[in-house]
Write a structure and sequence with these properties.
A hairpin with a 5-residue loop joins strand 3 and strand 4. The radius of gyration is 26 Å and the shape is elongated. The chain has 14 helices and 4 strands. Helix content is about 55%, strand content about 5%. The N and C termini lie far apart (about 60 Å). A two-stranded antiparallel sheet has the order 1-2. With about 300 residues, it is mostly helical.
Length: about 300
């Protein structure tokens, strides 16, 4: 039999699936395998090291396109470490911005849930707890969408005043989240006040992490003549818990990235498939299971 590892043997030794290996070949992360006389794929030990690098790099938040770019630099005969370091610094900065967004989102969900017993003071298109001006994004707080003389507003004007794209509005129509608009004499879409109010609700609900299916379900309850608030009240705690889990995962990823960058100046072994700073002992030590989130950075609860 030809020397080499079959795809099953490689999968076991690299602790990935055969499906993942085929995917990495197809996307040019791994070079094409040799073929044995029986047409089976055969891999050498370098493939194990390459898959190890891919797993370590993915664990630090690098995308497949970025990993492929790093590998291409290495295959061209140049060390990719400076490029990898820049990518990791960018990842750390992006995570900081994402944390701010998630904290704001969690604060708004908690504010809605804490104030749920209070009777909403205003009418609403769908659910007054979500459409309260306290939870409304800035474009909606700025004022009402001005209606044209003929009782409707064009798609471009609606998009600008609510801070969405015309493409998004058409998408919501196609998904039956928004009612179909009327047409003016010139064939342009014209949206009435109900459509404007519904779109405002959709934007706010999506901003709280509700999926399109969940938003459509809420609107259907309202269109059926019932208040959907009890249903929304059941959905939001699940969103808050999902945010907690996501935040903990991101904290762990940021900690791994910072640990990796902090060790960058230390001497590491040059024996690596791609980048020794990612594959070295220090990087491996920082890439432990994401379930371990008890450091001083991640130990404090943000769900309160």
């Amino acid at each position: 039999m030809d020397d080499g590892l079959t795809i099953g043997e490689l999968a076991r030794r690299a602790e990935v699936t055969a499906k993942a290996i085929r995917f990495y070949e197809r996307t040019q992360v791994l070079p094409p395998a040799r073929r044995a006389a029986n047409r089976y794929r055969l891999y050498d030990d370098d493939a194990i090291a390459m898959l190890h690098f891919v797993k370590q790099a993915s664990g630090l938040g690098l995308t497949l396109a970025e990993i492929r770019e790093i590998i291409a630099i290495r295959r061209a005969g140049r060390p990719p470490c400076a490029h990898t370091q820049r990518l990791l610094r960018d990842k750390a900065a992006a995570l900081d911005h994402k944390f701010e967004h998630l904290l704001d989102l969690r604060r708004r969900i908690r504010g809605i849930l804490l104030g749920w017993k209070r009777r909403p003071g205003a009418t609403a298109a769908v659910c007054p707890h979500i459409e309260s001006s306290r939870n409304r994004p800035a474009p909606e707080r700025a004022g009402h969408v001005a209606m044209a003389v003929n009782g409707g507003v064009k798609i471009g004007q609606l998009a600008r005043q609510l801070g969405v794209t015309a493409r998004a509005i058409r998408f919501y129509e196609a998904k039956r989240v928004l009612p179909r608009p009327t047409r003016g004499a010139n064939g342009y879409r014209l949206y009435g006040r109900d459509a404007v109010a519904t779109l405002s609700f959709v934007k706010q609900a999506a901003g709280l992490g509700l999926s399109l299916v969940e938003i459509r379900e809420i609107i259907a309850i309202r269109e059926g003549g019932r208040l959907p608030c009890a249903h929304v009240r059941r959905l939001l705690p699940d969103k808050a818990r999902a945010l907690d889990r996501k935040f903990r995962d991101l904290i762990d990823m940021r900690r791994q990235i910072r640990r990796n960058l902090a060790s960058w100046s230390r001497r590491v072994s040059d024996r690596a498939a791609v980048c020794p700073h990612i594959e070295g002992r220090l990087a491996v030590g920082g890439a432990r299971s994401r379930r371990a989130t008890t450091s001083s950075e991640g130990g404090r609860s943000w769900s309160g």
